[in-house]
Amino acid sequence: MTPGGPVTRRNPVVLPDVAPELAADGLVLRAWEPSDADFVLELAADPETRRWAQSFWGVCDVVSARQWITDRREHRTMWVVCDAATGDRAGWVGLSYLEPEEWSMMVSYGSAPQWRRQRVTRRAVDAVTAYALDPAGLGLLRISLEHATQNPGSCAVAAACGYSVEGTLRQRIRLEEGGLADSHAHARLATDPGGPLPAPNPPIEPVEIVAGAYQLCLPNADLDAAAIVAACADPAIMLYNTGPTDLAAARKWCTLRSDWTSGEHASWLVKDTVGTLLGQVSMFRIDPDQRLAQIGYWVAAPARGRGVATAAVDAAARFGFGALDLHRIELFHAVDNVASCRTAERAGFAREGELRQSYRYGDGVFRDEHLHARLATD
User: Fold this and answer.
1) Rounded to whole angstroms, how far apart are CA atoms 281 and 87?
2) Which residues, other chains included, contact 179 with Cβ-Cβ below 8 Å and sequence gap of 6+?
3) Cα(first)–Cα(last) distance of the chain, in Å?
């Protein structure tokens, strides 16, 4: 059978009685259980989840959360995504809209707020895709994937999992606040070669930057992992940023942060002239089309009060406006994090507003946030 060519007659797809357990590079995908209702309520309370996942709109209490789970179990191809080591629930992935005589389904997915930017959805979608296209699994010939065009993170997941863009569907996705949004249509065929497609963003060439008395350096797993674990054990970093807390996680963190080929981020460690770790700064959710990005940072406890964050954020922003041709960089911080507010303003990020309970922090509490932004023209 050639890619895109005719398919010989075969038996219709038969779904399993219960979603089978799947392994996914440090994750376990298992069937939803009634005991997961609290996790469903957490997801439904997250603004980012509700923005892109319509199924959570009607979830408001334990009864509706359990009904949500019952609906997923009836589909028989819906999974909760868990960390393989701890069992902590990290997200969800599922297949729906079965066309049994066309051997086709649609994949959907998402991650819990504290698990984002850890490639949870990519690993989960890879595992489900492999199972669905395997003749020993579901034996599908095609899996479709759709996401709102304003959701570049989902576009990156699709590309990383080998789903080709097939076009833009106008006014396709209904929004909770009203109105309709365009969507990107992707698909993966059983005859596709597999592996990640070229990222939707052009790759970024990693560079190191001098920021006054400080240096913005690429993370190095061998050199920096232990210092990162020590810094991230600080209660303030655990609350407002969350980072790796063991050496294995820190090494993986360094590997991901030093790889800019996706074009989605530019990340540095901040060090002094003798190589002592002082903090980190990263531009992420880079959108070349809108010339937009977000910036985040933390400073190790012994280095606070020395202007480290201000110098690093300013240097990273200048790189974004220059090398990446960005027009706007946004900065969010918890309202009660007054030190971060001062950093933002000193680095030229004007305060533009306050977002109510917009992000769940390390203690599990949804906090109000200040939105700051700096423009290339400022």
Assistant:
1) 30
2) none
3) 57
pTM passes above 0.85: no
Three-state DSSP at 88 gives coil
Note the pLDDT tens digit of each residue in 293-314: 999 999 999 999 999 999 999 9
Alpha carbon distances (Å) from 27 to 21, 72, 159, 167: 11, 19, 20, 31
Please tell me the total count of domains within the chain: 2
Q: Give the residue from 363, 367, 319, 318 showing the smallest Cα distance to 340.
A: 367
324 vs 329: CA distance, rounded Å: 11
User: Each residue of 201-232: pLDDT tens digit?
Assistant: 788 999 999 999 999 999 999 999 999 999 99
How many whole angstroms separate alpha carbon 64 and alpha carbon 70?
A: 10
Note down the domain range covering 318. Answer: 209-375
Domain identity same for 294 and 356: yes
Same domain? For 180 and 215 the reply is no
Q: Which residues pair with 81 in a beta bridge?
A: 29, 91
Kindly state whether residue 6 falls inside one of the protein's structural domains.
no
Average pLDDT, the chain: 92
Alpha carbon dihedral 347, 238, 355, 68, in 10-degree steps, equals: 150
